[in-house]
Amino acid sequence: MAPRAEPPDGGWGWMVVLSAFFQSALVFGVLRSFGVFFVELVAAFEEQAARVSWIASIGIAVQQFGSPVGSALSTKYGPRPVVMAGGILAASGMLLASLATSLTHLYLSIGLLSGSGWALTFTPTMACLSRYFSRRRSLATGLALTGVGLSSFAFAPLFQWLVSRYAWRGALLLVSALSLHLVACGALLRPLSLREDPVTGGPGTQLTSLLHHGPFLRYAAALTLINTGYFIPYVHLMAHLQDLDWDPLSAAFLLSVAAISDLVGRVASGWLGDAVPGPVARLLMLWTTLTGVSLALFPVARAPTVLMALAVAYGFTSGALTPVAFSVLPELVGTGRIYCGLGLVQMVESIGGLLGAPLSGYLRDVTGNYTVSFVVAGAFLLAGSAILITLPRFCSSASTSKPRDLVTEAVDTKVSLTKEGLGED
């Protein structure tokens, strides 16, 4: 394939968007709806909430911590075979989980095996999508990630119905069949060659460069804090509502309302990210701050109408921050290093994904309710938004659709990694 000077901003890229749409649904839609299984597993294994929370947390952490492996394999072999192999692993993990007789089995099957499959699917696909778009990158990312909102809207009541009909084991067996469709999504990916690729070097050179890139490291730290609190409602909101004497179907409906709002937020944020001049990081800081505030207010709400309003607010802002979070990274590191950069960011922020839900469950076990859990989750997001202010050109009014000569920077990195100010601008 002849290298292109610039991303095509369309063409086969829209098929990559379609693939990413279904992949985001089959990965994070399942994770976001895991709260339905959470309540059932606590009762089935008679374990504390903190221990059961580790199932989803290990899956999220392995998906993110293993992302550099998926990125490195995609750089060498292309994203198509890597994603197809990941789909098989994800489906196999859910299949084995339906046969589990202890929490350890669920840690290994859903957490480790399915998590490894998700690591090989999501990050390579999103990196491939970022290489196909430049001017319309935020919109394309927002459209792709609407799969999370749509699937969360559909999966929460669907999984609740499956559990009531076939019990949690039969429901996990059907989730395994759904996950197998990741193989078909991987077949849609077509690698794209850009002229800057040979200059940016291999995975080792890119990794070394990124580890000396100050803004990239600060951005990774911010996303780690954001990730610590981001998934808390999708793991524990249903249990919180049942503590307030909500029936399971009504609680699942509230999650579906949040998912619809999430969907609207992703599309709106994707459009704004391309339409509003200036750094995309400012939009990310705005959405992150509003998400943290809405999270912290959840324990205060008691009336159904107030809880519904908070669910709409949280769904919109948490959905809105996702596409711009992916769009900020190419502005910092360039499209030539997007595979390695995205994989490394996902690995670092896995710390937050690993600790967030168990910390929330532990606080619930200690205090007897989820008040402190949601307040702490909101505080993590607010801390992450504060770090985003330190990114380069945050206060600039000029558009930053292209980073400063990062290709030249990559060449300089091969010569010396000790130059002053490497990548600071």
CATH class of the largest domain: Mainly Alpha
CATH homolog superfamily of the largest domain: MFS general substrate transporter like domains
Low-confidence stretches: 398-425
Basic shape? globular
CATH fold node name of the largest domain: Growth Hormone, Chain: A
Strand content: under 5%
- Give the number of DSSP strands: 0
Structural class: mainly alpha
Please give the radius of gyration in angstroms: 20 Å
Please give the domain count: 2
Average pLDDT taken over every residue? 82
Family: Belongs to the major facilitator superfamily. Monocarboxylate porter (TC 2.A.1.13) family.
Function: Proton-linked monocarboxylate transporter. May catalyze the transport of monocarboxylates across the plasma membrane.
Protein name: Monocarboxylate transporter 13
Keywords: Cell membrane, Golgi apparatus, Membrane, Symport, Transmembrane, Transmembrane helix, Transport
Explain what you see:
The protein has 425 residues and is mainly alpha-helical. It has two domains: 10-192, Growth Hormone, Chain: A, CATH 1.20.1250; 202-394, MFS general substrate transporter like domains (Growth Hormone, Chain: A), CATH 1.20.1250.20. Helix content is 78%, strand content 0%. It has 18 helices and no strands. The chain has helices at 13-32, 35-45, 49-65, 67-77, 79-97, 103-132, 137-179, 182-187, 197-200, 203-211, 214-230, 232-243, 248-275, 280-297, 304-333, 338-367, 371-388, 406-415. Helix 13 (248-275) runs parallel beside helix 15 (304-333) and helix 16 packs antiparallel against helix 17. The protein is globular and about 60 Å long.
